[in-house]
Task: inverse folding
């Protein structure tokens, strides 16, 4: 892990509440893999006081790219502060999605959960990418996804592409596939990941790995803010994750 200074020099609005920012780093954070994250802290604001975690969207040389949704004071500042502005950046943090020697690789993502899995094709051969949004207005990065993946898109209300939860379309794919030689990469809210786990259990899938989203204050296991209860005891998402085989979390 390294602490360095960063300057936000570019910002793109992807939809009403989702933004992409580009950060020029004083020092390189090194290599990253899909699933890794960084912690950010504002230099000139007292609120938010604690650093905040962000999945790495891309990291090339000394340029870090993040995609986030405005949900509170910190993300609002990232979306509205006049460019350029400075940040402190800790990283690269956390583990990453594994590679497998056999089987087909499939991604299942819900909303903002597509950020940590977006670049998986740089490291893994992806057979199919499933992504779901609540509605058309919340969709983002579709053009980029279509250019890189065999893509299935759904919206809960049917306002864009297929109607229904993306997990329904994923299960339909499993029914048509007819075998369990599948490796699944997932990310989204915990109920979403739990549904992917339940579907995988039904079809005897053993390799389902998900990146879990949670509140963090330190990023390396000291503050205990990201500890979650599992059937096997509490685990620190930032220390042992954020990527887990879902059986480690749900049993």
Result:
């Amino acid at each position: 892990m390294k602490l360095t200074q960063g300057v936000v020099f570019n910002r793109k609005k992807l939809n009403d509440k989702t933004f992409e920012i580009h950060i020029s780093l004083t020092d390189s954070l090194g290599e990253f893999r899909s699933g890794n994250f960084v912690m950010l802290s504002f230099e000139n604001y007292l609120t938010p006081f604690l650093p905040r975690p962000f999945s790495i969207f891309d990291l090339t040389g000394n340029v870090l790219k993040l995609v986030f949704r405005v949900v509170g004071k910190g993300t609002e500042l990232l979306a509205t502060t006049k460019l350029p502005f400075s940040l402190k950046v800790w990283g690269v943090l956390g583990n990453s999605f594994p590679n497998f020697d056999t089987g087909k690789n499939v991604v299942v993502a819900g909303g903002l959960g597509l950020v940590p899995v977006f670049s998986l094709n740089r490291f893994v051969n992806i057979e199919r990418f499933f992504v779901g949004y609540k509605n058309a207005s919340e969709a983002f990065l579709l053009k980029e996804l279509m250019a890189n993946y065999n893509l299935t898109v759904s919206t809960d209300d049917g306002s864009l592409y297929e109607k229904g939860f993306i997990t329904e379309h994923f299960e339909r794919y499993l029914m048509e596939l007819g075998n369990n030689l599948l490796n699944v990469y997932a990310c989204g809210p915990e109920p979403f990941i739990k549904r992917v786990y339940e579907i995988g259990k039904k079809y005897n899938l053993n390799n389902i790995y998900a990146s879990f989203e949670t509140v963090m204050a330190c990023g390396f296991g000291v503050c205990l803010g990201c500890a979650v209860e599992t059937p096997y005891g509490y685990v620190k998402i930032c220390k042992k994750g954020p990527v887990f085989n879902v059986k480690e979390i749900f049993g």
About this structure: Residues 140 and 186 are 17 Å apart (CA to CA). The longest strand covers residues 2-13. DSSP finds six helices and 16 strands in the chain. The helical segments are 73-80, 142-148, 166-177, 190-202, 237-240, 246-250.
